[in-house]
């Protein structure tokens, strides 16, 4: 089983500059490959292989115009070309949209490192060819310090896969896949779990446990209030720039600081929400249930509702389902996705009768046949728990 580890870097200014340059090389190679593929397809109607594009880039290095490519690792443009070819193939297979050229302003800076030449210690990682100088004091530029110690497993027999260095707008990170042992839990005779997710509360479990909406806590509300205040302040400064000279006038240092604060606040909010989901999904899987049942939600369709779209976005329902899926695979717990049209909310969990006239405003389920009165979401989670028996 391959487990991905993601660790933040602690960089000096020279290392930051070199990482941005490496990301620029990767972006240039991706755009060059994509342009050549499109051009070749329009001329011949055939697909240009990645091997031929890499040979073209090798020839370009010999010219004076592109001699700067020699200063960087060969594996960066090599992998970028491969990514461009993969994106083009996925489009023709109907798996993705037509690939776009990467913009310097809008694209996420990232690049690939060769897994065979990657050296990792408890505190540092050595990246390939950040400096071409062979002096020992200059070679230290290749060694980048981790923000956390002992996060990535190290050893002679450990093999790393697909190392990627990325920038999230604030910090640089490295993500690397590591082959780990079996994480399967010793199964106990515990009951299965049904999970009903929603907007008012994040998750209602068939056992009766309720995980509240973290966006309603005072901590998140204060952060959102701070974000709105910072955004209004930045907006006023943008208006002043327009009056003084428009887009041609450069931003002040204070405005750059303000934008950085906004990015940090966004990051803080995202981390709080993601961490909360990690805690819930881990506790559910490590409870060692026989299986877990969750409903198949049409999240993209729900986002079209202008009244609920923001609340659904902040709940991170897709992320909740994604984390639950891969953690169940890790620990050997069966995850069952209930049919999208299964009437979990309208079905009585006691007698099985279906209440067709149930409205969204009815928060308490009242059965006309057996007289059961129960919370609507708890009733749905119990039905999901019994889904495999009724299917």
**For the terminal residues, how far apart are their CA atoms?**
31 Å
Helix content: 40-55%
Largest sheet: number of strands, sense, barrel closure: 7 strands, antiparallel
Name the average pLDDT.
Answer: 90
> What ranges have pLDDT less than 50 throughout 5 or more consecutive residues?
none
Shape: globular
Radius of gyration: 26 Å
Strand content: 15-25%
SSE arrangement:
Elements: E1 2-10, H1 13-44, H2 50-61, H3 75-92, E2 110-112, E3 119-120, E4 124-126, H4 136-139, E5 143-146, E6 160-167, E7 172-179, E8 193-197, E9 201-205, E10 210-212, H5 218-244, H6 253-285, E11 291-295, H7 299-302, H8 309-315, H9 317-331, E12 334-338, E13 364-366, E14 373-375, H10 376-385, H11 387-390
Parallel strand pairs: 8-11, 11-12
Antiparallel strand pairs: 1-5, 1-7, 2-6, 3-4, 4-5, 6-7, 8-9, 9-10, 13-14
Task: Describe it.
The protein has 391 residues and is an alpha+beta fold. The chain has a domain at 2-179. Helices cover 42% and strands 17% of the residues. The protein has 11 helices and 14 strands. β6 and β7 (172-179) form a beta hairpin. α1 (13-44) crosses α3 (75-92). The chain is globular. The two termini are 31 Å apart. The model has no long low-confidence stretch (mean pLDDT 90).
Labels describing this entry:
391 residues; alpha+beta; 7-stranded antiparallel beta sheet; 5-stranded mixed beta sheet; globular
Give a summary of the structure in a few sentences.
This protein is of the alpha+beta class. It has helices at residues 13-44, 50-61, 75-92, 136-139, 218-244, 253-285, 299-302, 309-315, 317-331, 376-385, 387-390; strands at residues 2-10, 110-112, 119-120, 124-126, 143-146, 160-167, 172-179, 193-197, 201-205, 210-212, 291-295, 334-338, 364-366, 373-375. Strands 2-6-7-1-5-4-3 form a 7-stranded antiparallel β-sheet. Strands 10-9-8-11-12 form a 5-stranded mixed β-sheet. It has a two-stranded antiparallel ribbon with strand order 13-14.
């Amino acid at each position: 089983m391959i487990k991905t580890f993601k660790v933040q870097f602690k960089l000096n200014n020279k290392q930051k500059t070199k990482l941005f340059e490496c990301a620029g090389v990767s972006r240039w190679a991706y755009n060059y490959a994509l342009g050549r593929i499109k051009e070749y397809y329009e001329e011949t109607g055939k697909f240009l292989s990645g091997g031929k594009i890499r040979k073209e880039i090798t020839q370009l290095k010999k010219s004076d115009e592109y001699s700067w490519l020699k200063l960087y690792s060969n594996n960066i443009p090599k992998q970028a070309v491969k990514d461009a070819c993969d994106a083009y193939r996925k489009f023709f297979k109907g798996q993705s949209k037509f690939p776009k050229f990467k913009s310097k302003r809008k694209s996420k800076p990232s690049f690939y490192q060769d897994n065979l030449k990657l050296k990792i210690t408890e505190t540092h990682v050595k990246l390939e060819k950040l400096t071409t100088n062979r002096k020992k004091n200059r070679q230290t530029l290749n060694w980048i310090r981790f923000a956390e110690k002992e996060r990535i497993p190290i050893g002679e027999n450990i093999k790393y896969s697909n190392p990627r260095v990325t920038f999230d707008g604030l910090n640089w990170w490295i993500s690397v896949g590591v082959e780990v042992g079996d994480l399967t839990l010793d199964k106990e005779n515990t009951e299965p779990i049904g999970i009903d997710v929603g907007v008012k509360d994040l998750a209602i479990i068939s056992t009766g446990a309720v995980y509240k909406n973290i966006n309603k806590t005072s901590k998140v509300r204060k952060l959102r209030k701070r974000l709105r205040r910072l955004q209004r302040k930045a907006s006023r400064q943008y208006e002043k720039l327009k009056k003084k000279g428009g887009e041609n006038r450069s931003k002040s240092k204070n405005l750059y600081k303000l934008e950085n604060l906004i990015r940090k606040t966004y990051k803080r909010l995202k981390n709080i929400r993601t961490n909360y989901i990690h805690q819930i999904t881990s506790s559910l899987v490590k409870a060692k249930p026989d299986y877990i049942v969750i409903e198949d939600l049409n999240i993209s369709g729900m986002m079209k509702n202008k009244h609920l779209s923001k609340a659904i976005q902040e709940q991170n329902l897709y992320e909740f389902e994604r984390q639950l899926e891969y953690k169940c695979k890790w620990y050997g717990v069966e995850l069952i996705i209930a049919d999208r049209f299964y009437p979990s909310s309208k079905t009585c969990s006691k007698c099985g009768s279906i209440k067709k006239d149930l409205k969204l405003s009815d928060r308490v389920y009242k059965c006309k046949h057996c007289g059961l009165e129960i919370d609507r979401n708890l009733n749905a989670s119990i039905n999901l728990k019994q889904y495999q028996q009724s299917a």
